[in-house]
């Protein structure tokens, strides 16, 4: 059973958010994610539902559309019960954090119903009975059962029931369990030979095998927990009731079984195309990702330049207060990880303020403040590297400090800063890939979406890497050309 | 300049009990000095005696610890006085030229007149060319400073300092960073300036030159004025032991 991709972090994050939420409940309650909160009837309402990005066959992208068992069930129920849904594909951890932050009304993400989670969320009736199964590489003739695992290493998903089960029998069969974060990477490590077998949720395994992930199952599935749809405890009761009602209806009229069969019993067998086919097929999604990567980098870097100039000047100012402000700014954003701020702005800030922070806003805030701190240091260094005699000469002519800086010092400083600024721009572009953690649809995120559905991890990453490389080379050439052109 | 030190000419710079410290280092320890209009004053003395610091106090490139410096009737130590206004009347030439490398020679000279709205670009360029002609570098107007020799750079720097038509010129070891064969051309320009009646204060190590152009020579040691007088007296018949000792080493 899937718990989530990175359960340890999520657990902590969720607890942190839950803790913060208690103190800020008054603010939070006043800012529901949808207008439907507290309504008696769900009819005609629109609900915002958070989900995972990459958990085939429950949710994954096919030709750009989010599809899968969760999505089909959700849409069928919504149609049945007469409400509308707006699905946000955030990633598992992010979806739960967004639920706690009331940015979404509910979460459906192949989530196991556990006692721990019941403390924070209200769950629907189970809509899927899962179980754990073991798979090995397709051409592996040695491993036919657990007893063949003696002395070997297997992989399982961190915090999942697959991991729990594998560990529970590890001693008995004398094998080692290594934990990884994503299904696709687990399968890769089995194919690569660093592990001989994988323990994973059976529907995920079955789907992956059907998609040609290069594995086969050799043991029976072990029955496990159930998946449920979740809302915040005590909230959106009408939505939860409608979900249960609609689920019963789907089961009664057979539509439920059709959905499961579509993905599990008879999945469209994927004939693995060649590398070129993969590149062509994934190209549109990756170009969208590249566009978002370049967009968020460009906007953030423009803001970072403004911040950097301001704080860079503060740093060399004679005023101790301004210097203190600049030093604090630089130390905070240079001294803390980028990812922390991405989480803080996307999950923390909405709770603190009640504002609805979009993933673009959070991404731009994160990147621009981080780059701004580095640019401030570049500006300070650039200005200080100009011979003090230059400022003295300008001042001795009767020019004021501002004029002297503007006409004499800055043009020379800027010339010296340019290589460092180009460097920082490239770092920011690469750093923007971290925003995938909050579900920002940049290039690497799109790549993950693709390999989560087709399990061709290495090839997809290779394509993504080439696109990054070409984009950064082009940007470097452009920047160097501009440098030569304007700093001559 | 025999008339320059006559008592009836106007006082251009009045320094009274000037002290300047860098931390615990008392570089100037009570300087009193008066410079009259048209006077050429040379300041000599061993390194570390405070010559350059004294010069830099005159246009407040250094903050003054105590005492007063009055230039053209403005007390530069008074915070209400617009120091930028005072500096427009005081040209300064630096040891290391400090030309602006990102501008052409003409632009270096035009910067202050244009930015301070004293002239439009056309007038400023005409003025720059006129000044360049005066220092013998008219053909270098559109060159970059980096392409000039040290002597040429310093002549451009002098032209730049003259762009605002100052009434006073300060020279801070203007020939110390030059190769020996270039010293002459720069001294020639300075001498012509002195002959034109400009009020000038020069910190210099060129004793022969000081003797030739100065109306008065000030010998500084350890942050005080040790001895001053007409060049023929100070060089020919120094009264103080410190002066005699210094001159015996440099002459």
TrEMBL record, chain A:
Q: How does it sit in the membrane?
A: Multi-pass membrane protein
Start and end residues of each ABC transmembrane type-1 domain: 290-479
Q: Which residues form a coiled coil?
A: none
Query: InterPro entries, from UniProt?
Result: AA_ABC_transptr_permease_3TM (IPR010065), ArtM/GltK/GlnP/TcyL/YhdX-like (IPR043429), Iontro_rcpt_C (IPR001320), MetI-like (IPR000515), MetI-like_sf (IPR035906), Solute-binding_3/MltF_N (IPR001638)
Q: Which CDD domains match?
A: PBP2_GlnP, TM_PBP2
Q: Which NCBIfam families match?
A: HEQRo_perm_3TM (TIGR01726)
* Assigned protein family: Belongs to the binding-protein-dependent transport system permease family.
The record's PANTHER family line, in alphabetical order, gives: ABC TRANSPORTER MEMBRANE SPANNING PERMEASE-GLUTAMINE TRANSPORT, MEMBRANE COMPONENT OF AMINO ACID ABC TRANSPORTER
Q: What is this protein called?
A: Polar amino acid transport system substrate-binding protein
The organism is: Glutamicibacter protophormiae (Brevibacterium protophormiae)
Automatic annotation (TrEMBL), chain B:
Organism's domain of life? Bacteria
Q: Which keywords does UniProt give here?
A: ATP-binding, Nucleotide-binding, Transport
- Which Pfam families does the UniProt record give? ABC_tran
The ABC transporter domain sits at 13-247
Signal peptide per UniProt: none
What is an example of a GO molecular function annotated in this UniProt entry?
ATP binding
Keyword flag Ribonucleoprotein:
no
Q: Which PANTHER family match?
A: AMINO ACID IMPORT ATP-BINDING PROTEIN, ARGININE TRANSPORT ATP-BINDING PROTEIN ARTM
Q: What is this protein called?
A: Polar amino acid transport system ATP-binding protein
